[in-house]
């Protein structure tokens, strides 16, 4: 399971033959606007986020990229006074349809946060937390889910001997990978990450990026990052947000070498933000 | 080593060196004085408890013998009387009050914390604060009016309800405060894993806050254990053995009250012994609260 087993071009299409690539979990925003009370935070966002690819959302603080990310799995539902217009399509169906259950949606669209937030429970219980919502899961099946999720998060070898110990004893990078494992245990189609590496050292960051590279074969990955190098290194597509609007989106290599918008160019060359 | 040891002249400032040294001495003196005053206040704060404990031990210890816990009250003049019925009665009253008061109090506190901005939460919080300051005798009168008069007789459960009503606002407010300290990120993690809001509240938020909630509950129990006024015309007291919730029931504070105002010396001694047992009970509950809290916050934080 090395990163080289699947070659992925900048367009997110697998070039290697026979690679296990699914199309499920494709995301798209259509004329999506969002308000916190009176304040409009997003303006008419149109953005496709392909499956089996990593889309990075970049932009200066307060540009709406995190708001947009949280709109995808409806984390804003719990905030009073928020509203939206337009659609966010998951497999061509709007996630804001009234019959969509937000909790069911969040199991399909997993989310990892900036600051790792492991529960004060054992490593095993952290990963098993999501699957346990189905209380009737047999023990051996739960064991299997925990092990495979930890393997997918490249954490199994480091924690297999201490699954019953508290998760809070792990290092920051390990805790963040545990949070990813916990999300994977729900077998989501989409993985949303809100600056997952901004509080990690370079080595832990590299591990997360390698992990995402592995995971994108089976998932749609959308990552918000402040770190432009990270976006350039780790993503297939980059979307630049500024003041609540999507300014430009394209394959990452083109975005960083030949951006078409002046504001994109200014931002990635460090003239503001 | 006279001039050489002198530190290099600093900015001389407004005052000559001698005056500065005087100022410094004065500041040190004020500092020492203030530290002493605060220390004295700390000692004074614990003094009443120490005196009470000491005096209780002196007066009550001789009467606290095995038969005090096993025997029933005896008529004046007979030796070997005890407060078995009052001890059991107090435990029953505490149990009844906790069964009603803790679920309602903790549930209410959870609501206050999770829906902190809603109108119902704001109203409830305000009323809980008012209720917290309500004199316990007033609570007793209300319990009498609504739980004793309509039924025509005093009862243990009327006393239990009166005590529960005293617990609820306190438990609700401490639960709210503790639950509010649970980081939002933990909530978000559970929600993002597809948990509904109430399951998140119960399995993550309340579980993380368990140690603090347990402490709050035990403190509330310790407080009501010694309440007398709400029991005066609800549980009423009982000189005989009774564990029925539907009958008047004995309670340590009531028994102490009855014995203390009596003119008999051996009843006075019994009152002291009862007071000692009551204080010991409250002390034990407080100690349990401390032990329950210790070590668990270490894992809950960060």
Secondary structure elements and their pairing?
The complex is a heterodimer of chains A (273) and B (302).
Chain A: E1 27-36, E2 39-49, E3 53-58, H1 65-72, E4 82-90, E5 93-94, H2 102-108, E6 109-112, H3 123-128, H4 139-152, H5 156-159, H6 172-184, E7 190-194, H7 202-215, E8 220-224, H8 228-234, E9 237-242, E10 245-251, H9 252-257, H10 262-268
Parallel strand pairs in A: 3-8, 3-9, 6-7, 7-8
Antiparallel strand pairs in A: 1-2, 1-4, 4-5, 9-10
Helix pairs in contact in A: 4-6, 6-7
Chain B: H1 17-60, H2 66-70, H3 84-114, H4 119-132, H5 136-148, H6 156-180, H7 184-192, H8 197-208, H9 210-225, H10 229-232, H11 252-260, H12 265-293, H13 296-300
For this entry, give a set of tags.
heterodimer; A: 273 residues; alpha/beta; Rossmann fold; six-stranded mixed β-sheet; four-stranded antiparallel β-sheet; 10 helices; disordered N terminus; B: 302 residues; mainly alpha; MetI-like fold; 13 helices; 0% strand; flat; disordered C terminus
Tell me what the structure shows.
The complex is a heterodimer of chains A (273) and B (302). Mean pLDDT of chain A is 86; it is low at 1-20. Chain A is globular. Chain A has a single domain, classed as Rossmann fold, CATH 3.40.50. Chain A is built from 10 helices and 10 strands. A 6-stranded mixed beta sheet of chain A has the order 6-7-8-3-9-10, with helices on both faces. A 4-stranded antiparallel beta sheet of chain A has the order 2-1-4-5, with helices on one face. In chain A, helix 4 (139-152) packs across helix 6 and helix 6 (172-184) packs parallel to helix 7. Chain A has 273 residues and is of the alpha/beta class. In chain B, helix 3 packs across helix 11 (252-260), helix 5 (136-148) packs across helix 6 and helix 7 (184-192) packs across helix 8 (197-208). Mean pLDDT of chain B is 85; it is low at 297-302. With 302 residues, chain B is mostly helical. Chain B has a single domain, classed as MetI-like fold, CATH 1.10.3720. At the A-B interface, helix 2 and helix 6 of A face helix 7 and helix 8 of B.
């Amino acid at each position: 399971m090395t990163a080289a087993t699947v070659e992925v071009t900048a367009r997110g299409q697998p070039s290697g033959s026979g690679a296990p690539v699914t199309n499920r979990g494709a995301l798209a925003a259509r004329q999506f606007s969002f308000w916190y009370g009176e304040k409009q935070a997003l303006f008419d966002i149109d953005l496709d986020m392909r499956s089996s690819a990593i889309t990075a959302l970049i932009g200066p603080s307060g540009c709406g990229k995190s708001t947009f990310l949280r709109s995808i799995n409806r984390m804003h539902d719990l905030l009073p006074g928020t509203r939206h217009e337009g659609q966010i399509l998951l497999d061509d169906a709007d996630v804001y349809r009234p019959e969509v259950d937000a909790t069911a949606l969040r199991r399909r669209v997993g989310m990892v946060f900036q600051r790792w937030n492991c529960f004060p429970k054992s490593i095993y219980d952290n990963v098993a937390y999501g699957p346990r919502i189905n209380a009737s899961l047999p023990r051996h099946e739960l064991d299997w889910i925990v092990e495979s999720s930890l393997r997918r998060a490249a954490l199994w070898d480091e924690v297999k001997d201490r699954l019953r110990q508290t998760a809070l004893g792990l290092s920051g990078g390990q805790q963040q990978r545990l949070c990813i494992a916990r999300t994977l245990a729900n077998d989501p189609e989409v993985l949303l990450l809100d600056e997952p590496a901004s509080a990690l050292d370079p080595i832990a960051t590299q591990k997360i990026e390698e992990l995402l590279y592995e995971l994108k074969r089976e998932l749609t990955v959308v990552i918000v990052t402040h770190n432009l190098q990270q976006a350039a290194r780790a993503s297939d597509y980059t979307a630049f947000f500024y003041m609540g609007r999507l300014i430009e989106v394209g394959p990452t290599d083109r975005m960083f070498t030949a951006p078409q918008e002046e504001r994109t160019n200014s931002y990635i060359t460090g003239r503001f933000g | 080593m006279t001039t050489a040891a002198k530190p290099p002249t600093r900015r001389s400032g407004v005052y000559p060196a001698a005056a500065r040294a005087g100022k410094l001495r004065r500041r040190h003196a004020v500092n020492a004085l203030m530290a002493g005053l605060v220390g004295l206040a700390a000692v004074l704060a614990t003094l009443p408890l120490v005196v009470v404990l000491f005096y209780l031990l002196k007066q009550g210890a001789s009467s606290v013998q095995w038969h005090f816990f096993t025997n029933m009250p005896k008529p004046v003049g007979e030796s070997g009387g005890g407060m078995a019925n009052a001890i059991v009665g107090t435990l029953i009253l505490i149990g009844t009050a906790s069964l009603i008061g803790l679920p309602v109090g903790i549930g209410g506190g959870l609501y206050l914390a999770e829906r902190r901005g809603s109108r119902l939460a704001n109203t409830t919080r305000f009323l809980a604060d008012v209720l917290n300051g309500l004199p316990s005798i007033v609570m007793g009168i209300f319990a009498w009016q609504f739980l004793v008069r309509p039924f025509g007789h005093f009862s243990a459960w009327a006393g239990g309800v009166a005590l529960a009503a005293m617990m609820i606002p306190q438990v609700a407010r401490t639960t709210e405060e503790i639950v509010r300290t649970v980081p939002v990120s933990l909530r978000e993690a559970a929600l993002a894993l597809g948990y509904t809001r109430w399951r998140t509240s119960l399995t993550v938020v309340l579980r993380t806050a368990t140690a603090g909630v347990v402490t709050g509950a035990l403190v509330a129990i310790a407080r009501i254990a010694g309440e007398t006024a709400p029991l005066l015309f609800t549980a009423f007291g009982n000189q005989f053995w009774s564990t029925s919730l539907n009958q008047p029931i004995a309670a340590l504070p009531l028994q102490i009250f009855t014995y203390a105002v009596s003119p008999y010396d051996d009843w006075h001694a019994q009152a002291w012994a009862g007071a000692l047992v009551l204080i010991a009970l409250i002390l034990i509950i407080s100690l349990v609260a401390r032990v329950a809290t210790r070590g668990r916050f270490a894992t809950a934080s960060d």
